[in-house]
Amino acid sequence: MSKKSKIAIIGRPNVGKSTLFNKLCGRRTSIVNPTAGVTRDRVYASGEWLDKKFDVVDTGGFVDSDEDIFNEKIREQVVEAVKESDSIIFLVDGRDGLNPNDQYLAKIVRQSDKKYVLAVNKCDTPEQLKNNTISFFDLGLGDPIGISALNGSGVGDVLDILLEEFDSSKETDTSESFSISIVGMPNVGKSSLLNSIIQKEQAIVSDVAGTTRDSIDTNIQWHGRKVKIVDTAGLRKTSKVDTDIEFYSSLRAMDSLTRSDIVLFVIDADKGFTKQDKTIANHIIKEGKPMVILVNKWDLTSDSDISADSFMLDMFDTFRLLEHYPILFVSALTKRRISNILSTAWDVLDKHKEKINTKELNEWLAKATQKYPPPALQGKSIKIKFVDEVQVSPPLFAFFCNYPKLISVPYKRYLHNSLREAFDLEGITIKLSIRKG
Q1: What gap in Å lies between CA 2 and CA 380, rounded to an integer?
Q2: 176-352 with 358-436: one CATH topology?
Q3: Which of 152, 211, 242, 297 is the most buried (most CB within 10 A)?
Q4: How far is CA 201 from CA 42, 175, 198, 227, 229, in A?
């Protein structure tokens, strides 16, 4: 795979960065809302222009002020995005004109020594295109280019400049890759865990629930494998989602969960396993995703009588199915067991991708049905003749028998648990289908 150019979009709040980001990547990845400051973390996606593929990074709105507790963190994210990118789209608002924050960002662009384009957004008509760019010559960044992130005019000119000399043949990537999504309720420490795993400040962390609003993609190399880790917005009860931003954040989180290969489900050790945690876990299992459970903030329980065993027993009492998934008691703060997270996830995913040999499956079935035959019902003797794994991801096992409708729920549960135990399917969500045959 050829190396792709990485383009960072920077600018002050509400100039249209997320609208442009979505236009470049061809789908609604960043949340677009008239409220300033909706995007806080760096958000990643891919795009293509005239057979040239590129990655694009959306950043939070830059404000040279400390009135908002997030401003300092957002500035750090902007600087980091500029450092890691090959080129910059410095986006300004043609309707509002030049702003002191634009002047400050211009210094960052000049000091970066990266290729850049000064793009004047909201030039939606020919008249605006003519008049709205003039004041931005004062930034000293060359000729500004008028664009409309909304309708796409001028965006191609920007990409032509930034991608013109980029050599995609410099590097190739042949490594194995997989994607992980981090999900859980608000303020359980998902962003702190992401930062601990990748060992840098990728996501903004604060004590304010709901700090993460978009799903944030982070690409890292781990033991020769390319790993995409997606930090998602906290999932609350539907009845408590009271703003458009929260609603779309939840949709992004669910979409990221669906598209990922494996899920890290984060629980707050201090709060225990709640009803909303059960709802989230049930959704992950229904999606058929392999899962690793992370009980975060375990450092906060050091002064209490709670133990890992008692925590698990309470959790299993609430939701028995979680017995089948690996559980790590971790702390993003102290880095407790952080190094085990990716290796555990990979072990689970590796098993998830393997198809079980049909001969071995049927040898297991013969022993399982001999040990506990399916109980006769309505005077009919039930025989399960054959089993096969008809789908690998997620694993679906088809059992063929003479009276499929007479197989009881408890017996299906017995087959499910016996199959897991026989083939070491911890962490893998499996589904059973009883069919006539």
Answers
A1: 62
A2: no
A3: 297
A4: 11, 25, 8, 17, 14
